[in-house]
């Protein structure tokens, strides 16, 4: 499969280009940047043949089967719709859009065009999370009582641009991290939150956007979920705990792009380390994406997964803004 990058981004450079090229016959043929000079330098650095500063021109002229969108959040919708109209398969970064309605438009357009559309929710591809999901789905934990996600980090200096200063571009910790936690909880529990309460704050890092948030979610099964996301915690560590009537799983250091961290299960027989595969998260994701293009299965996180994670994140922000519980509107 031949890919074009819509956005000369750090995540593409650090993870995605390698994952695309790791697939049999995989290639990255073009990159788009609004800054032509940046685009040219990026293409040269990463061995990409062509660079463009106009999306319509790229879609008309680049030799590509699919596009990967990793621009700022407010651009995702129109860029995805243009790529879909051009008959390209699309992998889009989270959150898919600035509103649930726009995200639904994107997914429905792809369905009507007959192209594969996926959301780049990487954590559900991690060996650690696949192992956790197996513990839950196999019934090893019994009925689930509660989940705690702790995903408070120190945002690296290189990323402290629009994410902490530009609300119009989709900045803030909720669209950046809460949206991932929403997908991760949905992946493990196999159900969608129905209502949330939340608080958020700007503790000094953000400029016009929240840099920390906490929320509690109500699940259809009756399980309770609590989450904590932040850009300002250098020593907190990350992880997820899932507690059931027959056991508890505690995973630390697993909310990451790299295959690392520990997973332990405590049940009536004691505490056990849970082994897991340490494959590359993004290579697995791209393998499933390309299989879906061939008509074999589905992407690890499809467009509707992206819609639902966005809906949860936006409900968390609205609950925090208003101080009232918010029922989640999934737009369908």
From TrEMBL:
Domain Gfo/Idh/MocA-like oxidoreductase N-terminal: 2-121
Gene Ontology MF, one: nucleotide binding
Domain of life: Bacteria
InterPro entries assigned to the protein according to its UniProt record, in alphabetical order: Gfo/Idh/MocA-like_OxRdtase_N, Gfo/Idh/MocA_Oxidoreductases, GFO_IDH_MocA-like_dom, NAD(P)-bd_dom_sf
Residue ranges of domain GFO/IDH/MocA-like oxidoreductase in the record: 130-249
Official protein name in the record: 1,5-anhydro-D-fructose reductase (1,5-anhydro-D-mannitol-forming)
Protein's organism: Citreimonas salinaria
């Amino acid at each position: 499969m031949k890919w074009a990058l819509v956005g000369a981004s750090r995540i593409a450079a650090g993870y995605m280009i390698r994952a695309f090229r790791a697939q049999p016959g995989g290639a990255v043929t073009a990159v788009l940047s609004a800054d032509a000079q940046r685009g040219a330098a990026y293409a040269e650095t990463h061995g990409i043949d062509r660079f463009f500063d106009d999306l319509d021109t790229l879609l008309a002229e680049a030799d590509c089967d699919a596009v990967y969108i990793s621009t700022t959040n407010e651009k995702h919708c129109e860029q995805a719709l243009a790529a879909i109209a051009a008959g390209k398969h699309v992998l889009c970064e989270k959150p898919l859009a600035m509103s649930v309605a726009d995200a639904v438009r994107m997914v429905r357009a792809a369905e009507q065009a007959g192209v594969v559309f996926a959301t780049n929710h990487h954590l559900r591809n991690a060996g650690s999370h696949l192992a956790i999901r197996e513990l839950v789905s196999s019934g090893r934990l019994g009925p689930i009582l509660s989940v705690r996600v702790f995903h408070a980090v120190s945002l690296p200096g290189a990323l402290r641009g629009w994410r902490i200063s530009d609300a119009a571009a989709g900045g803030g910790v909720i669209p950046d991290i809460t949206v991932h936690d929403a997908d991760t909880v949905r992946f493990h529990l196999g159900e969608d939150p129905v209502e949330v309460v939340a608080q958020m704050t700007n503790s000094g890092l953000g400029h016009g956007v929240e840099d920390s948030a906490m929320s509690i979610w109500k699940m259809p099964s009756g399980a309770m979920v609590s989450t904590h996301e932040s850009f300002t915690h250098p020593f907190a560590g990350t992880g997820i705990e899932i507690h059931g009537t027959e056991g508890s799983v505690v995973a630390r250091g697993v909310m990451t792009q790299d295959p690392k961290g520990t997973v332990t299960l405590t049940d009536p027989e004691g505490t056990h380390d849970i082994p897991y595969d340490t494959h590359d998260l993004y290579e697995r994701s791209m393998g499933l994406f390309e299989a879906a293009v061939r008509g074999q299965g589905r992407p690890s996180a499809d467009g509707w997964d992206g819609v639902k994670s966005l809906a949860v994140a936006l409900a968390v922000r609205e609950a925090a803004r208003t101080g009232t519980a918010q029922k989640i509107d999934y737009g369908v």
